[in-house]
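Class prep. Sample record?

___
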Amino acid sequence: MALTKFSRETKAGLLEGEYDPKFKGVVDAFVENYEKNDEVGANVALTLEGKTLVDLWGGKKERDGDPWTRDTMSIVFSCTKGITAICAHMLADRGKLDLDAPVAKYWPEFAKNGKEDALVSMMLDHSVGLPHVRAKLKDGAYYDYDYMVKMLEDEAPFWAPGTRNGYHGVTFAWTVGELVHRASDKRLGAFMHDELAKPLGVEFHIGLPEELENRVAPMIYAEPDAATLASKFTQQVMSDPTSPAHLFLMNGGNANFNSREAHAAEIGSANGISNGRGLAGLYQPLANGKLVSADTLARMGRVSMATHEDATLMIPSRFALGFMKSMDNRKVPNTHNMSCILSDSAFGHVGMGGSIGFADPEARMSFGYNMNRMGNGILVNERCQSLIDEVYKGLGYRSNASGVWA
């Protein structure tokens, strides 16, 4: 069946694309985000059984700026972690990286100061104990790959590795990224481009070429609202300067993620640049049993670490090896926009402000969404979740009352 062409003028600008009529609910939710939820610019894409059935884009690159066109990209923040994790699992599938081995097998300089027994898997599921570094980072630290690797080599863990988990919000770039480097003899950005994005014909960058800079929509940062300020995470940030929450948010070497320096750097946890189409495209083979073996795929989607209180995010969290799983915190007090409700089969990663990419092997579906107006909260907000909800409704799923789409 041919896809239906879509074009709609909204108060935010022109929206365009194409879709399969079974996902008309996704189109309606996409439009509503512009009309009622202050969407500025965005792209949402969906593949099913390897075919793109939804690809919608539009709005503005800035509030009063140029149109958001089909090839507009933005930084997708922590969605990058999922792509970095895919690279690690590809190496594991090829026998180049043993997820059950000590980190010291690949990175002997890391194995000190209480990290001697850390395992590769602990780097992926946020349990290795390096949610951040304690020392004040130099200006531009995140842009200096070797500097951050050395900082993490020398850092003592915040807890005994493997005994609990706390989101490694930025440090994942160098814990997992350096393992990809050591196991492949290629830096993460090059491995991702050469072995994943380019073969799939997908546009995703960890280290953006300067000639593509004009296609990037700058991020519009969220103004904290009352619900965000009341959250346990924000309270921890404001009250305890030694906490992982405070260090993760406040000790960033004055990084400016709208700068050319940030876009050009290799930050495998936070500076991937793409769009919804690119995110859906990278997860598409995993949704269809390709790219890695069946055993590797099964391990990628299985919960590896879960807790009632993440040491960084201060919420209940569930992680596979490098990926987020469905997290339902709707009934937890003071957790506005701190949920991300998928199916039990799905795995992927959200990005700060509300972007996401994930695969659902049971449904043979992949999904990607990016935007330039960031929302409050730690996980997804109503714009992203409404799109996800309509995808699952279009697939015939019944309810998410259990904490997953069923």
